[in-house]
Amino acid sequence: MISASVPVTNPATTIDPAEAAHFGTMAAEWWDPNGSSAMLHKLNPVRLRYLRERIDAQWHGDDTSFTPLAGKSALDVGCGAGLLCEPLARLGAAVTGLDAAPENIAAARIHAGLSGLEIDYRAGSVEGLDGKTFDLVTSLEVIEHVSDPAGFVRGLADALAPGGLLVVSTPNRTALSRLAMITIGEGFAKIPKGTHDWDKFLTPEQLTAIIEGAGLTVIDKRGLSFSPARGFVLSDDLKLDYFVTAIRA
Q1: What is the model's pTM?
Q2: Is 78 annotated as a binding residue?
Q3: 99 in a labelled binding site
Q4: What residues bind S-adenosyl-L-methionine, as annotated (predicted)?
Q5: Is 82 part of any known ligand binding site?
Q6: Domain locations along the chain
Q7: Fold for domain 17-170+199-248?
Q8: Among 10, 12, 100, 239, whose Cα sits 20 to 30 Å from the Cα of 225?
């Protein structure tokens, strides 16, 4: 069963309507590993590896446990059709998935139902959560698509419970990211054209300043790199894409 919920509404929003519409057109293919979201499917194992590291470090977990998030709540902002929400639910969390595109939320609810998972999916903006907080807040490859990155991060920070963990990932604004994600990704791979605007990419220094400006403390940064032999891997190289983890100061 999937919990029913009303769409989140708030006049103050960091949603970019054009971006929401663009990603909404991808809803039907979100769970197809060979479709327009193929790159996200390739990224997901690396994302989950990093998240598991940070979860175990934050809550002193046993890395052999199948449910390290048991008894905890998680919010994924910009969840699409649930590629991250479903694994978080299987790790034991009570999961809320939030996305700007109602089409994605509809696809997410259907897929969760077929998977036998109870996930609270909501269409709307992080600014409309009305004070609800979560132990884990994630927003992966999303901040580069919002209208106001600082306002967006303030919303993420407001949704973070005391003792909670925030994990954000985004492309770096480098020549490598332009080549990989736009020239190659949108030119020859299956990433739909117009998905990325290189000018909206944030450097690690910029994102750190935004997160700290929202009252949080950055405790870890890690790169997401591509290896011809191994595919996407975690690394110390932040030039392509990177994760930032933060806690409340």
Answers
A1: 0.91
A2: yes
A3: yes
A4: 47, 78, 99, 140
A5: no
A6: 17-170+199-248
A7: Rossmann fold (3.40.50)
A8: 100
